[in-house]
Specification:
Blueprint: E1 4-7, H1 30-50, E2 54-57, H2 73-82, E3 88-95, H3 101-114, E4 119-125, H4 139-146, E5 149-151
Parallel strand pairs: 1-2, 2-3, 3-4
Antiparallel strand pairs: 4-5
Helix pairs in contact: 1-2, 2-3
């Protein structure tokens, strides 16, 4: 049986919850992101030790509120693979408009070679119409654009 785990990828939020500040008021900086990345690698080493098959990262850009702070799953997965023994690393979503398609394919392929096949299939997704450069589309068209996926 294969057991995977997913990592949303947030910074530490000691004041989160109903009594904390509104999510849109949160602002985090370099030290918070550095700690979050160290936490993600620690989670990866624990998952490797515990026998998980794959750790799936998510990609988001410009999330100053501290949620989903991994802009490059390929780099994080490659670094994590260097510090683990057998755990595979998956890319839950890539925000396609943020990448040049050839660069995404080459970077993923190179990471897969360097990790000796420990990369999992990439799922390409246009998460938000604004991210896709389509803020003026009518709502029905936005939904259509937002749900196109390519499994590789």
């Amino acid at each position: 049986m294969r057991i995977d785990t997913n990592l949303l990828g947030t910074v530490r939020m000691p004041d989160a919850g109903a009594d904390g500040p509104p999510a849109t008021s949160r602002r985090y900086g370099r030290a918070d992101y550095a700690q979050a990345y160290a936490d993600f690698v620690e989670i990866a080493t624990a998952a490797d030790t515990l026998g998980f098959d794959t750790l799936w990262y998510t990609e988001h850009h410009f999330q100053h509120e501290g949620y989903e702070v991994v802009p490059n799953q390929i780099q994080l997965g490659l670094y994590s693979a260097a510090l683990t023994r057998r755990l595979r690393f998956g890319q839950m979503f890539n925000i396609v408009p943020q990448w040049h398609p050839l660069r995404l394919a080459e970077d993923f392929a190179m990471a897969d070679v360097l990790t000796r096949g420990r990369r999992r299939a990439v799922r390409l997704h246009v998460a938000r119409p604004v991210a896709a450069g389509h803020p003026d589309l009518p709502p029905a068209a936005r939904q259509e654009v937002g749900h196109r996926e390519i499994l590789a």
